[in-house]
Specification:
With 70 residues, this protein is mainly alpha-helical. It has helices at 3-28, 35-69. The protein is elongated. The chain starts with a helix and ends with a helix. 4% of the residues are buried.
Length: 70
Amino acid sequence: MSEFVKTQQELRANLVHQIRETIDSAEAESRGLAADELEKIDRIEADIRRADEAIEVAQRNEERRAEAEE
């Protein structure tokens, strides 16, 4: 696995953790998510989608490279 993919996976895991922290905070206070928290989660989810796409592109490229070497 390339270093790029590892970095993107670590980034993704951190972003998921940030969402979980936001939700856990609201749950601990027995309340729903505030508008600013929902916006934050929306931004983080967009970042997760971008990380997922980058991982997929890198993995496809690695597969193509391996096929080309055969």
